[in-house]
Specification:
Helix content: 10-25%
Radius of gyration: 23 Å
Order of helices and strands: EEEEEEEEEHEHEHEHHEHEHHHEEE
Largest sheet: 8 strands, mixed
Shape: globular
Length: 407
């Protein structure tokens, strides 16, 4: 598991937090140095170039911080020693904290925009808070121009991003301007798009590669509303999906599978195929053992092996309808072999891990692994798959797996 935050030591306080891109280029143009922090191999500042917002090094123990200078020097904890040029951090010298906002070499960068939400899902991994966290958007508006234009994709998540209203539009517009080749994937409950003008406003931004991932937990309104703990949410979500489709904004349906949702998976697939055939993708997801899952585990937990029949029916109904479907957050050893072609390595690298028992598994490199939080409960059927049970190394991506045509 990769740490994205930590405690720092700083030679002085700067008041307001700094949003800076790390660099090791001592010849960087002076006009942009104040947007950068210079990476030092140690705390020796004698040869450090001037004009940067800060110099940064990784803690090597008890070495005293340099003093007697107006320049800011920050010492990062050793667990953040992986940071390098191009990465972007938020340095809060008053609170002595650092938060990693962006990693240039990671495919799993997300922009966290708010802790507020208008739903209260029983399995929410990020329980909502009613707080004023508008500073998050301001930080990101400073960070986006510093990101590499070669970034393949960015996530936008919360809380509920659409509660930001026009500020969310500003954030997406900034991405369109500074990162025109970068795809955006926004996690949202979609309820506010029940208001057609908001869907039109989002479409008017004209982002070339924007998708909203919206949860739908059942074909029955009362069941969906129970999961999200909001009366009328099903109707709003369906209207939101229809309005986004009407205005040309791409959508993905996300279904978290647990004991309250698995039984209606076949019917949900039929509902989507009949009523929402315009969606770009459907993601069928395992539980992340965080937030409310811990207190509601007795209501939520079902071993994935126990719902393979319902999951298989759901996947094959969607596939036969010509819809793109994937299975996220599941291990290959708990999935029916016919579902392997749909399984994806979806867990973000900073919170992905494998068990000791996985080391000898012949398909480990293709398996999605576990959330680091999964220690709360594992399937009883986790086991290594020996080579003689797999016909080829490409099994998880081979459409022939599990069929009579499997070589």
């Amino acid at each position: 598991m990769i740490k994205l935050y930590g405690r720092i030591r700083a030679s002085r306080s700067t008041g307001e937090p700094l949003i800076v891109r790390l660099t090791s280029d001592g010849e960087l143009d002076s006009t942009v140095r104040q947007q950068h922090a210079y990476l030092l191999p140690n705390v020796d500042l004698s040869n450090a170039p001037r004009g940067f917002a800060a110099t940064v090094s990784v803690s090597d123990g008890d070495t005293p911080l340099p003093g007697g200078s107006d320049s800011l020097h920050v010492e990062l904890p050793q667990e953040l020693g992986y940071l390098g040029p191009g990465d972007i951090v938020r340095l809060n010298t008053q609170a002595r904290e650092v938060r990693v906002l962006y990693r240039v070499n990671s495919p799993h960068n997300s922009l966290f925009v708010t802790e507020r939400c208008n739903s209260n899902c029983i399995m929410c991994s990020q329980p909502p808070k009613d707080v004023d966290d508008s500073f998050l958007v301001q930080d990101l508006l400073h960070a986006i121009p510093l990101m590499s234009p070669e970034t393949r994709e960015l996530g936008i998540t919360g809380g509920e991003p659409t509660l930001l209203g026009e500020k969310l539009c500003q954030l997406i517009s900034a991405c369109r301007e500074h990162l025109p080749e970068t795809g955006l994937h926004v996690l949202s409950n979609g309820r506010l798009f029940a208001y057609l003008p908001f869907a039109h406003r989002m479409a008017s931004i004209g982002h070339p590669d924007l998708m909203f991932g919206i949860p739908l937990y059942s074909d029955l309104a009362h069941q969906h509303d129970f999961v999200v703990q909001a009366k009328g949410a099903f109707d709003q979500t369906i209207r939101g999906l229809l309005n986004l489709g009407r205005t040309g904004v791409k959508t993905e349906i996300r279904v978290v599978i647990h004991d309250q949702t698995y039984s209606r998976l076949p019917q949900l697939a039929e509902f989507i195929a009949r009523n929402l055939p315009f969606v770009s993708h459907i993601a069928l997801m395992g539980l992340e053992m965080m937030g409310y899952v811990k207190m509601n585990l007795g209501t939520l937990w079902i071993d994935p092996v126990k719902y393979q029949r319902e999951l298989s029916q759901c996947v094959h109904t969607l596939d036969e309808a010509g819809l793109s479907v994937s299975i996220y957050n599941h291990q290959l050893c708990v999935l029916d072999r016919s579902l392997w072609p749909y399984a994806r390595q979806s867990i973000s690298d900073w919170k992905n891990e494998y068990l000791d028992v996985c080391q000898d598994c012949s398909v480990r490199d293709h398996c999605g692994g576990f959330f680091a939080s999964a220690k709360l409960r594992y399937s009883d059927y986790i086991q290594p798959i020996p080579p003689d049970q797999v016909t080829c190394s490409l099994a998880p991506t081979c459409k022939a797996v599990g069929s009579s045509s499997c070589p």
